[in-house]
């Protein structure tokens, strides 16, 4: 994880959605309306290790499968999506559709209950008492502690933000 530290977008943090930088231009691609849901469901992905080749993980997207996302017209790397994020999204699509263990099946309400105020509400055992809940907690903790762990490994004794 630790993707916020890789985003070099120089926009104000409030414009980028806060410290997680979720709304950075480096975490955005524009899509046709019919492809937006396919992207969110990991039904399509972009492989930056193969010239940004678009892969459809399910049937129904033959018009884009095998095509290439053109990014070479964007010279400034702070104004284009990160390859690391494309790789992560691509791998989630592979895991979900080829191995069956990718993106969680949590609903928006589950996420709101668990992370609604940017903290962990561990009192709901219907969420945290499950195998998936424990995996989500582990991933969330790893993501939040990434910068601190990196600073310790680099010999810096203070936590970074």
Number of strands: 2
Distance between the termini: 15 Å
Radius of gyration (Å): 18 Å
CA-based shape: globular
Q: Helicity range of the residues?
A: 25-40%
Continuous helix count: 5
Largest sheet features: 2 strands, antiparallel
Average pLDDT value? 76
Spell out the helices and strands N to C.
Answer: HEEHHHH
Neighbour order of strands in the largest sheet: 1-2
Give the uncertain stretches in residue-range form.
Answer: 155-161
Percentage of residues in strands: under 5%
How many individual domains? 2
Secondary-structure class = mainly alpha
Could you name the key traits of this structure?
single chain; 161 residues; mainly alpha; 2 domains; two-stranded antiparallel sheet; 5% strand; disordered C terminus; HNH nuclease domain-containing protein; HNH_nuc
Summed up, what is this model?
With 161 residues, this protein is mainly alpha-helical.
Describe this structure as you would to a colleague:
InterPro entries: HNH_nuc. The protein has helices spanning 33-40, 83-99, 108-115, 125-128, 131-153; strands at 44-47, 53-56. By secondary structure, it is mainly alpha-helical. It folds into 2 domains: 1-103, no CATH class; 104-161, no CATH class. A two-stranded antiparallel sheet has the order 1-2. Strand 1 and strand 2 (53-56) form a beta hairpin.
């Amino acid at each position: 994880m630790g993707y916020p530290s890789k985003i070099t977008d120089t926009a104000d943090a409030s414009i980028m959605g806060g410290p997680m930088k979720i709304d950075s231009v480096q975490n955005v691609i524009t899509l046709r309306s019919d492809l937006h849901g396919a992207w969110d469901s990991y039904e399509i992905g972009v492989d930056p290790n193969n010239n940004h080749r678009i892969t459809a993980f399910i049937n129904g997207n033959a018009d884009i499968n095998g095509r290439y996302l053109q990014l070479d017209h964007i010279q400034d790397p702070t104004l284009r999506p990160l390859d690391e994020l494309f790789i992560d999204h691509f791998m989630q699509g592979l895991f979900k559709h080829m191995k069956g263990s990718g993106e969680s099946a949590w609903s928006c309400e589950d996420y709101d209950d668990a992370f609604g105020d940017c903290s962990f509400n561990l009192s709901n055992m219907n969420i945290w008492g499950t195998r998936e809940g424990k995996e989500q907690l582990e991933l969330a903790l790893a993501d939040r502690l990434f910068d601190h762990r990196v600073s310790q490994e680099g010999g810096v004794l203070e936590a970074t933000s």
